[in-house]
Amino acid sequence: MKGFWFFTVLVVFLFCNSASAKLSHYHPQYDSARKLLSVEDDANWASLMYKKLKIPRTFQSPGKDFLGEVSLHDVRLDPNSLHWIAQQTNLEYLLLLDVDSLVWSFRKTAGLPTPGNPYGGWEAPDVELRGHFVGHYMSATAQMWASTHNDTLREKMTAVASILFECQNKMGTGYHSAFPTELFDRVEALIPVWAPNYTIHKILAGLWDQYTFAGNNQALKMSIWMVDYFHNRIKNVIKEFSIERHFQSLNEESDGMNDVLYRLFSITKDPKHLLLAHLFDKPCFLGLLAVQGNDITGFHANTHIPVVIGAQKRYEVIGDELSKAIGMYFLDIINTSHSYATGGTSSGEFWYRF
Question: Is pLDDT above 80 for 354?
Fold first, then answer.
């Protein structure tokens, strides 16, 4: 993986190492640059990032050094504790949510009948961020079911996942969301749009949790089909334009796409999933940390904290030591110069140096 990090550092110095760089809403904009890597033929397109990158069949996993994770299935709270009361409050809320309302925009996008009424707020049918709450719902219900084994909750969350599978099948491409693909056309054209990658991350994370906590194998199949769709989209962007163009398109809240993709690769061992995870390792930020540049002022915290979590997952999955160093260095920066007395790290979602 050394080739990737050489590329990362090169990109940082070309794009992000200017003291006079102006800041966008999410991270410092990089100047137009020459095309760094040539596009090779379709069969070998993955090599365009590292030239002759060879993805090893096995990795030196550092897992033996990690603390063991206790399964939620093996943990139950004391019914006399405040924690149990809080858990029950969350459970009652999740049980109140209506299946048809949750999936309304997914069905609409897929061209299926839409019984019931959609939820409002950020899930309203005219809001570009719609669908992200359903991803949160799938994660919350999977973890809550593992913690309680509530049968009614399992029925509802399984129903949601099954309807989403119907929507994905109806669309027939692997794409799966509450909004049409046109939002990603805008991402790729560098036209402002409200964070579709953020929503896709939430959906993928929700499907992952349904698989890992609730054993829903259909959710895993949905994730793989969905990731293959985005692998092909991003491949086409890089082949038609450049790797730079792809990284420019990440100048929006892409959230933890790298994290969920490394998790998926840990199961599938599919090199496409590993490569796609790398392509969401934002070099303009992780590269800055890799060379221990300590000025993260002006970066959007909500966007970049998940990216660092993804870098840590990269270390956990493939044993990349630099990713571990990035995570540790990031924590040093946060703890020494970007933390408030209240425990927070940002103001208005942005980092400022004290």
Answer: no
